[in-house]
Amino acid sequence: MKILLTGIDGYTGWPLALALSKKFKKAKIIGVDSLKRREWVKNIKSKSAIKISSMSARISTAKKYGYNNIFFIKGDLINKKFVFKLFKKYKFDLVIHTAAQPSAPYANYNIERCYFTHLNNNLSTLNLLWAINFFKKTKKIRLITTTTTGVYGQPNFKIPEGFVKASNKGKSEVIQFGNMGSSWYHITKSNDINNLWLANKLWKIQITDLRTSIIYGTDTEDTIKDGKLATRFDFDYFFGVVINRFCAMSVINHNLTVYGKGLLKRPFISLKDYVRSTINLISSKQKNSFEVLNQTTELLCIRDIAELVSKESKLLGFNCKINFLTNPRIEKESHRMEMENSKFLKVLKKRPDNFRFELKNILKTLARNKITIEKYKKILI
């Protein structure tokens, strides 16, 4: 089996590459990345709290631990010729697409970053879809792609896995749901899911769309083996999600800032469960040619996250309080983003990780990297 993994240098891409290597030892894993994420973070004067090695160092270190079938190619997926040459040379059986500019604040910052996010995210996906369609004429190619639960917006009902039933005058139809993103980044993912749906309708490409929730965690059973196998951990305003920022604030005794009442609930999943479920999905039989799974395990309240971080960090000798600030965002502050995930849990095949348990590991890891957080603490303010 030949696997194309896009975004291999990313927070989720690298741990996934290691897990793929361990599970599918006879497969050839071609990891592609433009390495732009490193540039974006550097340009906003930030840095990963956990030191990350170069891709060459990662690959060579991985081989020392038996991960012998990972290969890296630097390239940009918005380059159509590069993508088609890649498919022609390796004749992939499976494509796992995790590459994207993933930050809502980054995409919303100005028109240049907004334009780039649309260009980068949507053209990359389109190039992959057209390449799969062209080369599937000689062999079957399956696509597993990660979008985001953010495409659902804030509806006042429990969100199903990808589809809703619409009724009018006694007639009903099941339609795709996911065009209510609240940022220019999320809109690019809504565009992606429309293109995925159309590619399946026109070309019968076998697609699984993982609507991935907010991911937390610092490591997996593979990345923890060696410092050079570590994945990144961003804590800045643009790329650091709320859990990352709160944890980074706490280990330098910086008060946690909660917008509004902090009652907004969002879906989350641990990095370990993200990797496990994606690996399991590869081996599972896909029932329909186009499937959507809500890749989420927990619904967490922002205020509860802050209180847990404050409590657990104090047990480690740190001290931080919670400051409630006026909410600058346009959002339903008490919204509970509940969603159906029964199909996804069948793929996960285990009891999901618990944030409270994983939190201790995150804080201990960040405590060992406190110097980096202190150096870049301005980005937390």
Describe it for me?
The longest helix has 25 residues, at 111-135. It is globular, with a radius of gyration of 20 Å. Helix 8 crosses helix 12. The chain has helices spanning 13-23, 36-43, 55-64, 80-90, 104-108, 111-135, 184-203, 242-251, 271-283, 302-315, 342-348, 355-367, 370-375; strands spanning 2-6, 28-33, 70-74, 94-97, 142-146, 163-168, 171-176, 206-212, 214-216, 256-259, 265-270, 290-295, 298-301, 322-325. Helix 1 links the parallel strand 1 and strand 2 (28-33). It is 40% helix and 19% strand. By secondary structure, it is of the alpha/beta class.
Strand content: 15-25%
Q: Calculate the terminal CA-CA distance, rounded to whole Å.
A: 47 Å
Question: Roughly what is the average pLDDT, rounded to an integer?
Answer: 95
Decide which structural class fits the backbone.
alpha/beta
The general outline is globular
- Which sequence of strands runs across the widest sheet? 3-2-1-4-5-8-12
Q: Low-confidence parts, pLDDT < 50 over ≥5 residues?
A: none
Quick one: biggest sheet? Answer: 7 strands, parallel
Q: Can you write the helix and strand succession as a string?
A: EHEHHEHEHHEEEHEEHEEHEEHEHHH
Overall helicity:
40-55%
Instruction: Work out the helix count.
Output: 13
In total, how many beta strands? 14
Using the CA coordinates, give the radius of gyration. 20 Å
